Design the sequence.
């Protein structure tokens, strides 16, 4: 298994080849979709069981982004996308922690591949500018020459640095964690990797929160500033 | 879900990312994935980017369909229900306040009425008592007066009877003392004298 790169064809869907990481993404999407389907299949006014838990997650993320962003209508508009980021990233991070995942080719965490984190960062990048234009129209372009036209190159670098930092941060953390666990499993197969895997649970959640939080703050900054 | 035009623009822009990736996938599917030696070049792999973007938007659509929309709907429904319940509770509270005020007023009026009734009854009882007392006094006065009159009459009667008895005794005694019968004239004179003296002594 070569981390950070795609590792060959897992199976072919007609003429389209599907590799391990894409298959893992499908499993994650299927899992989230099924949970969502069963949680909201029979909605009750007084929530119970799975509906209660799923509602709590959605409402918590919505409230979290509303508090983070100054404008409530912006938060309302972008909270679903950010919640999707959070759920996708956290389950991607945890997919490598399943027992025996190291031996199963289909369970490599998608977020340990920098192409996947780059995609997520590009979606954030697009969302930030869409949010900026949606709020300020053409006036948003003024943001690139603020506070002075001389700052244009620096502002452009900053715009590129945002998705780049998001990509590298998530990829680096998850890839590093996977590498350390794989190395420890090779050296000491018992107990020690277990402790690190427990730590990975925390790390996976933190990285998902950090990515989502930064995306939310970039969107809030683009939508909130007066340009 | 799709009412928001701005959101639509966002989705379109973002879609461009995976469309571009997908196009690359179709072109590169034969070569990029199956490099000699199993190694892919360390450049952005548009195959992975395209698939991930597609997958991400599928997940987004699934969540919109099965999570955000139904949960938003139920939250709005819950908000409406809670608001209407609160409004209803407020109305009920106002109604209860009004009823309580009415009950309070009724109670005050009832108390006042009861006090009036008690006052009237007390007054009537007082009047009846006074009347009875007056009547009793009057009756006792009458009885007393009647008794006095009767006593007076009886006294007079007794006096007369005593006078007669005394006269008879006096005559009898005088006849015994004198040893002779006295005539009518003496008789009258003696009786008169005796009675006068006896009467003075008795009275």
Sequence:
């Amino acid at each position: 298994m070569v981390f950070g790169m795609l590792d060959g064809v897992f199976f072919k869907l007609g003429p389209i080849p599907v590799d391990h990481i894409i298959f893992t993404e499908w499993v994650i999407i299927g899992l989230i979709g099924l949970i969502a389907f069963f949680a909201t299949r029979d909605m009750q006014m007084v929530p119970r069981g799975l509906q209660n838990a799923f509602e709590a997650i959605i409402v918590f993320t919505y409230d979290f982004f509303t508090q983070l962003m100054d404008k409530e209508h912006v938060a309302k508009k972008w909270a679903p996308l950010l919640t999707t980021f959070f759920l996708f990233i956290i389950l991607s991070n945890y997919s490598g922690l399943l027992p025996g995942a190291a031996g199963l080719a289909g369970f490599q965490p998608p977020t340990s591949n920098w192409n996947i984190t780059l995609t997520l960062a590009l979606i954030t990048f697009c969302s930030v500018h869409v949010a900026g234009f949606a709020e300020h129209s053409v006036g948003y372009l003024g943001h690139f020459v603020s506070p002075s036209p001389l700052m244009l190159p620096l502002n452009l670098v900053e715009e590129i640095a945002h998705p780049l930092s998001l990509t590298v941060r998530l990829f680096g953390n998850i890839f590093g964690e996977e590498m350390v666990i794989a190395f420890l499993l090779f050296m000491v197969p018992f107990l020690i990797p277990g402790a690190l895997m427990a730590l990975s649970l925390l790390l996976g959640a933190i990285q998902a929160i950090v990515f989502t939080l930064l995306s939310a703050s970039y969107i809030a900054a683009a939508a909130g500033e007066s340009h | 879900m799709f009412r928001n035009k701005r959101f639509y623009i966002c989705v379109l822009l973002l879609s461009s990312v995976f469309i571009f990736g997908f196009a690359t996938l179709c072109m590169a599917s034969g070569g990029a994935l199956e490099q000699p030696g199993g190694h892919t070049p360390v450049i952005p792999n548009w195959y992975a980017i395209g698939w991930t973007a597609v997958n991400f938007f599928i997940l987004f659509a699934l969540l919109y369909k099965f999570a955000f929309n139904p949960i938003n709907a139920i939250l709005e429904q819950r908000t409406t229900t809670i608001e209407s319940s609160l409004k209803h509770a407020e109305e009920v509270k106002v109604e209860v306040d009004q009823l309580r005020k009415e009950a309070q007023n009724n109670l005050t009026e009832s108390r006042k009425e009861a006090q009036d009734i008690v006052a009237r009854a007390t007054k009537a009882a007082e009047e009846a008592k006074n009347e009875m007392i007056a009547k009793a006094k009057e009756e006792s006065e009458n009885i007393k007066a009647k008794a006095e009159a009767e006593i007076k009459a009886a006294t007079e009667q007794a006096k007369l009877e005593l006078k007669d008895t005394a006269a008879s005794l006096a005559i009898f005694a005088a006849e015994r003392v004198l040893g002779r019968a006295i005539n009518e004239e003496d008789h009258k004179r003696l009786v008169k004298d005796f009675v006068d003296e006896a009467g003075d002594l008795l009275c």
